[in-house]
Amino acid sequence: MNFQQTSECFRNMNFLNDKFTDTRIPSALSNEENKLLEESVEAKMKELSSLQLDIVENMDRIQMLDDHQKLVQDELATIQVILSNESPKFEKHRF
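Request: output the structure for the sequence above.
Response:
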């Protein structure tokens, strides 16, 4: 699995909008401990969402750097070929 596929995988995940993840307890049934737990769960879900976005951004950045590295390597190979073809001409002019 390459970075692009993994990035798309994380983009398609959305933990906060899933209709089955509503873990809130009705206020009539919740006691103080449950309210604290609910706040903790909500904070962790927000953190998870934020980290998910960071992962997507970093995966995209890695993909861009990988693409750039390939371009630089191609350019280097081209320059080396040009220099190897021109090298005998330069040596003839020196003597």
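Residues 7 and 56 are 5 Å apart (CA to CA).
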